[in-house]
Amino acid sequence: VQLQASGGGLVQPGGSLRLSCVGSGRTLSTYALAWFRQAPGEEREFVAGLRSGSMRVYANAVKGRFTISRDNAENMVYLQMNSLKSEDTAVYYCAARVRWTVAYSDYHQWEYWGQGTQVTVSS
Question: CA 15 to CA 73: how far, in whole Å?
Answer without folding.
Answer: 28
